[in-house]
Amino acid sequence: MKLMWRVAAASGLLGLGIAASVVAAGSAGAVTAGGRHEDGRLGGCGSWRGCGYLYVNDNTARTNTIAGFARRPDGSLAPLPGSPFRAGGAGTGAAIGSQGALQETSNGRYLLAVDAGSDQVSVMRIWPGGRLSLVSRPVFSGGSEPVSIAVHRNLVYVANAGTTTNFAGFTINFAGMLRPLARSTVRLPAGSLPGDVLFNGTGTILAGTLVDSSQIVTYTVGASGRLTAAPTSPRAAQATGPFGSEFRPTNPYQLFVSNAHAGANLGTVSAFRAAANGNLRSIGSSPFPDLQTAPCWVEITHDGRYLFAVNTAVPSISRYAINWDGSLRLLGSTVFNYPTGLAPQDARLSPDGRLLYVVGTGERKVSGFAVRGGNLTELTSSPTSLPANSAPFGIVVT
User: Fold this and answer.
1) Is the pLDDT reported for residue 315 higher than 50?
2) Which one of 130, 140, 151, 348 is least enclosed by Cβ atoms within 10 Å?
3) Would you say the C-alpha torsion 278, 283, 285, 287 has a positive or negative sign?
4) Burial call 264-277: b when 16+ CB within 10 Å, e when fewer
């Protein structure tokens, strides 16, 4: 299921060179071109090893691999020795759009990667120095074509988007062994095409977006790890094509969802308040205009103050301030240094929040931005190339 190209088909704009048509509406809609200078304050992590690592799910056909990079003090990326690392399962070798195809476990010891071509999930050990190794044989995903993973402590849920469409539950132990959780699988409507599955910060609510049926599903998570559907789940999205989503880091009961399929310059981001039983209630005048096309992926700063929505069709990143009540105020949009054919997808902030990295599936690139409050400036070293045979989706930054 090539979600990204479904976005393109819905908007009809990926091939029309619309980078020049980014819309401005006063100060809120103004577009700021990606900057061409490094910010000297990006340093301070000691050595390049002390800055952490970046990983991308390559989604390579036959044997899937994970590309690994060391993050230098200036934010630039250097391939790790031995990269790309074999994940054991198979990718599709073709573009798949979803959020969360690669995740880090809560203890920082392991990576979980979907192997969409073989209906499996791989667990990779993260070693000192960033090297990865496969923990054991990949595990059956519980359905077909896994596209997204949610992790909270030792509980894992996988979204399967193929002919067997569901959310399937697993547990993972300290040794990295992934085991199916009995009676945890929840079926999703046929043809719904899940794009994301995620926990809130306390692990008490699990949410997911259903792109093709334009629905949002929510569940409460019991002590056993099994799910109970919210009374009003699934609920209709506020616009066509709900896609990326994220709970606010500083408020586990505020959920934000991008809406990708409304058409040219009609993208929006929805804001919801989740009740204890999982029901969602709209916040303020949600959905909030994006003034761009195909906002698909969402990332929120660690302090909960700003939201970034990646607009695949432009390409650009819309920047919002998040008010205390969860309502959004559009600050503007930042275009990429390398716009033609980039098709940006999943995005992830560095642990210190000073850098934002975005996977560009169309050109097999990773773009990096310096973050200053709600402002983004693309690094001069950006973008960085990924393996030539990859169809990348999913990113982790440590």
Assistant:
1) yes
2) 140
3) negative
4) bbbbbbbbbbbbee
